[in-house]
Amino acid sequence: MNDTTAPRAVLADDERLMREQLRARLAEVWPELQIVAEAKNGIEAVELVREHRPEVVLLDIRMPGLTGVEAAKQIAQLPPPEDDEDPWLPEIVFITAYDQYAVEAFEQGVADYVLKPAERDRLAVTVQRIQKRLAARSNPEAGADAPPGPNMQQLLHQLSARLNPGQAPQYLQWIQATVGQAIQMIPVDEVLFFISDEKYTRVQTAQVEALIRKPIKELVDELDPRLFWQIHRSTLVAVKAIAGVTRDFRGRQIVAVKGHPEKLEVSRSYTGLFKGM
Questions:
Q1: Cis omega before residue 140 (within 30°)?
Q2: Can you name the CATH fold of 174-274?
Q3: How many CB atoms lie within 10 A of CB 57?
Q4: Are 243 and 236 in contact (CB under 8 A)?
Q5: Closest residue by Cα to residue 268 from 83, 137, 153, 92
Q6: What is the pLDDT of residues 65-120, one digit of tens each?
Q7: What does the pLDDT average to over 215-242?
Q8: What is the pLDDT of residue 19?
Q9: Which residues of 200-238 are buried (b: 16+ CB within 10 A; e: fewer)?
Q10: How many helices and strands, by DSSP H and E, does the chain display?
Q11: Does residue 93 sit in helix, strand or coil?
């Protein structure tokens, strides 16, 4: 976000009165923020975010079509604009009437929440946090809060589990992949990283390089976010395989992988994963 450009937001809530109240409260505590679009459900929210590319997205957790959590997952995997090689990730604020979702799940600080009905003082705290993270995007060296990254993935999985308490997540244990002319079953715990191009995703272990037709945006939901971090829109790396992080001549973070010579680039949207580098 350019410092001279007013931040923009998309607001999604299936209750019209809630949208009107939140818009009015935001005008009081963050008059520079432009609400560029409003959605009545999760499907509309994803499409409006795709169209407007706002810096902030406010999502009601419970909406028809897609829940706020499901919409956030899709938003996190939207492709970048044509003139930007990095993934584009807005700041996410969840709107909820349920206190239980706002205790442990938001402690990581990668997203914030607003309890219904929105109170001015609490909303002001949320705005300050979002402004701080937006400033950190413009100046990653400033040491402010990190932008969304794998911790966001973990948060979304936690919220999904809370919304569907009877449905424990079933993460992938095996990858069925093509190795040469053969199909091979690769244990997920042997995978060092996944890298996608437009057509295939490369599965890399210490001994095997294989191909699958599953994109990163699907793997993100199917792999345990505690074990695999997304560091680029096209790259997932096993946390236990990260040997270290350095910077190249452009200032980009580069991940060294245990047991493999390849270096993996960290895109700007995920630099907060490795604070202090």
A1: no
A2: OB fold (Dihydrolipoamide Acetyltransferase, E2P) (2.40.50)
A3: 27
A4: no
A5: 137
A6: 888 888 988 888 787 666 555 556 788 898 887 655 555 556 555 578 888 888 88
A7: 90
A8: 93
A9: bbbbbbeeeebebebbbbebbbebbbeebbbbbbbbbbb
A10: 6, 15
A11: strand
Type of residue found at 148? P
Tokens representing 30? 């963050």
Residues of the chain with CATH 3.40.50.2300: 8-163
Q: Which letter, b or e, does each residue of 134-167 get, where b requires 16 or more Cβ atoms within 10 Å of its Cβ?
A: bebbeebeeebbbbbbbbbbbbbbbbbeebeeee
- The pLDDT tens digits of the residues spanning 154-167 come to 777 777 766 666 66
144, pLDDT greater than 80: no
What strands lie across the sheet with 260-266, from one edge to the other?
Answer: 242-247, 253-257, 260-266
- Residue 6's SS3 state is coil
Q: Give the type of residue at 267.
A: S
Amino acid identity, residue 217? K
Q: Quick check: 260 and 192 in contact, CB under 8 A?
A: yes
* Token pair listed for 69: 């959590």
Q: How many Å apart are CA 218 and CA 194, to the nearest integer? A: 12
Name the pTM for this structure: 0.70
Report, as an integer, the average pLDDT of 142-153.
52
DSSP secondary structure string for all residues of 27-42: HHH-TT-EEEEEESSH
Q: Which CATH number fits domain 8-163: 3.40.50.2300, 3.90.190.20, 3.90.550.10, 3.40.50.20?
A: 3.40.50.2300
Q: What is the pLDDT of residues 106-137, one digit of tens each?
A: 655 557 888 888 888 989 988 998 998 888 77
Q: Compute the distance between CA of residue 111 and CA of residue 91 in angstroms, rounded to an integer.
A: 7
- CB–CB of 228/239 below 8 Å? yes
Token pair 């699907």 is found at 218
With 90 as the cut, is the pLDDT of residue 49 above it? yes
